[in-house]
Amino acid sequence: MNLAELQVGLLALLKSRELEARSHHPYFQQVRASERLSVLQEISGWWRSFAIERACPLTSALLKKRGVFDDVAGQFAGRSDATPFPQRQAAVFLTEMGSHGDPLIAAVARCEGALLAVKAGHAADPVVIDWQHAPYAVLESLLLGTPLDEAGIRGAYRMVVSRDVPELFSVTPLP
């Protein structure tokens, strides 16, 4: 077994992927049976969850307020197709959360994803996001870590995120 086969095989085991046919060396079977592998897999998942939390602070804060961050981030981080590149991982995570069944989680994720895209210079067209809550109140709560009174901030709002808008986004109430 050469160094490249060793590295590819160990990475596959660390990410809970199937080994390639040429990687069925007895060494990999020994590693797969090791209790230490599960500890490393768990630590790797924690690091990926931590990367999501750092790269997506608004969406992470809302998921924590909802009490689902650990489950959602853990499932996402545990995927075998998760990229090791934090910016790409954040974009994929925010895209997935942007279609979440909870409209507030979806709006926050779409907002955060659009802002990250603008900041990185990847957003050529404006992104329009409809909210069922006052965006400024939601963002203030998430940024400051204060309680979120959802009933008191309900309403219809439209946010436009664009590099051509002062402050990168604007919010208008809808009738």
Description:
The chain is mainly alpha-helical and 175 residues long. Helices cover 57% and strands 11% of the residues. The protein is built from 8 helices and 3 strands; from the N terminus they run αααααααβαββ. A 3-stranded antiparallel beta sheet has the order 1-2-3, covered by helices on one side. Strand 2 (154-161) and strand 3 (169-173) form a beta hairpin. Helix 3 crosses helix 4, helix 3 crosses helix 6 (86-97) and helix 6 (86-97) packs antiparallel against helix 7 (103-120). The longest helix is centred in the first third of the chain and has 21 residues, at 35-55. The protein is elongated and about 65 Å long.
Q: What order do the SSEs take from the amino end to the carboxyl end, as H and E?
A: HHHHHHHEHEE
Low-pLDDT runs: none
Strand content: 5-15%
Quaternary organisation of the protein chains: single chain
| Distance between the ends | 67 Å
Characterize the overall form.
elongated
Number of helices: 8
What fraction, in percent, of the residue positions are helical?
55-70%
Instruction: State Rg.
Output: 20 Å
- Main sheet properties: 3 strands, antiparallel
Supply the helix-strand structural class.
mainly alpha
DSSP, total strands: 3
How is the largest sheet built, in terms of strand order?
Answer: 1-2-3
Mean pLDDT: 89
